[in-house]
Amino acid sequence: MSLSAHSSARAVPIHERLPNLLAALGEGLYERQDALRLGLLAALSGESVFLLGPPGIAKSLIARRLKLAFHEARHFEYLMTRFSTPEEVFGPLSIQALKEDGKYLRLTAGYLPQAEVVFLDEIWKAGPAILNTLLTAINERQFRNGDETLPIPMRLLISASNELPAPDSGLDALYDRMLVRVWMDRVQEKSNFQAMLSSDGASPRHLSPGLQVQSEEYQLWQRQIEQVVLPDEVFELVYQLRQRLDSMGDEPCYVSDRRWKKAVRLCKASAFFHGRREVAPLDLLLLKDCLWHNEESRTALLTLMEEFARLHCYRQQVLISRHMAVTSALQELQQQMSIRLALKADPHKGMLGKRSKGWQLPLEDARKQGERGLQIQLHLLTPARLSPEEPDLLVETLECDKVVLGHWQFGGDKVMFHPVGSKTGLTLELELDSSQRLNLLDSQRHPIPLVLVCREPLPGLISAPWYKTLANLNDQLAALRTELRRQRHRFDDHQPHHFIGSRWLVAIEEGFFTLARELDQTAEQLAQWQQRLPLLCGEQG
Description:
This protein has 3 domains: 212 residues, P-loop containing nucleotide triphosphate hydrolases (Rossmann fold); 81 residues, no CATH class; 89 residues, Lipocalin (Beta Barrel), CATH 2.40.128. It is elongated. The strands form 4 sheets. Strands 10-11-12-13-14-15 form a 6-stranded antiparallel β-barrel. A 5-stranded parallel sheet has the order 2-3-6-1-7, with helices on one face. The chain is an alpha/beta fold. It is built from 16 helices and 15 strands. Strand 4 and strand 5 form a beta hairpin. InterPro entries: AAA+_ATPase, ATPase_RavA_C, MoxR, P-loop_NTPase, RavA-like_AAA_lid, RavA_ATPases, RavA_LARA_sf. This is Regulatory ATPase variant A.
């Protein structure tokens, strides 16, 4: 049975209701999806939300919308000032109880102690008497009224301000209880701004009872959230994030153990409300809205979480590193083949075999071509496009006059070649590298080593390790592609995700696409080398 809770046998699981519930709550709101999604998750999890942003950006409207998610929920909202009193938040004193019984009781009906959804605007302007009582209410979900300590039904506290608490204000304990922290700004997109101006501002007053959360469901969910498992693999990701946060910049982003525990519980809740029994890597992206404490740490955390999404969420960095190892090994193999196969010039010898100025190309072992045997062939170590007249022609082998090439000197004239399989003649520039190996310069003046086609093939003792290395690299690449498919399937299985914005999902998908394309390119290179190696070693052609 799924972890999705049912209030009755006929109830629709919450993960099936979520899309419609979010759509109904967000009707007529523009660019407030993140705040609404996170607020709903916090509400369903019994957590608190802090909205940071300038006045007039629908912070109170979001609180009123979230109240609609709960069946017959009571709502309390208040704008704090320096002159606010506890009576305005927790209820006035009962004069009758004071006169008749001498008891100090508050009349809490219609005030915070009896509300399921609470919105406190400009919260930092409240005085200590309010904030201290509020801290107890958040911590213990209790309110002391006279001689009695009463449970309070608060499921969601949304606080808001256009500023953060001052560093030495003594508000750290209360601020730390506000698990989800959301930055809000004015509507940015032109089309959304136009739609907002054109709308009538009407807001839904009721939701379908089939969408709303029942009290029995909510209570059951709080217990079931605790049953969601944090797998070892996902814990390792959490621990890596914690280490990165602890080492960030000159001022580490301090996160208390309490906040870590509650943040991970929020990730468990996210998994639960998607019908999963385990926290997925995707759920950890919610930490971007839980672990910052000021604007600087928020910016740094977003950068860190973007890197996490692209490189670590689904082992992307591990796959990238393994792919880099394959490409490095292939480059090393190419270098080995270039050193062994490329035609290398010898010091020029004059009369009586004495060393003289310059270099000469040893062409004695060349396989003779043509009717009169005056032509020789050279393979390009890597095929290239050399002909402007035939831009699609990928040249693999060139033919030239043996005598002309034998008299070529470094820094001398260009040499006439004919690509095998083409009637076009090409005048190409040659050079010797620092090891005196002969290179052809392509149109971009990139050097391409040239391999002389000899009468006898290369000994198998030399070529056998190359074949073995190519086969091994192919096996490694095949394993990489299998693991990439597995991780993509995991990513797909963890979607749709209703509490994370699409840009984060797109970033992960684009990373997978880029890596898959690079693996395909490497696979193509390996296939080309496996096909070309027998030719370069003189075993065919």
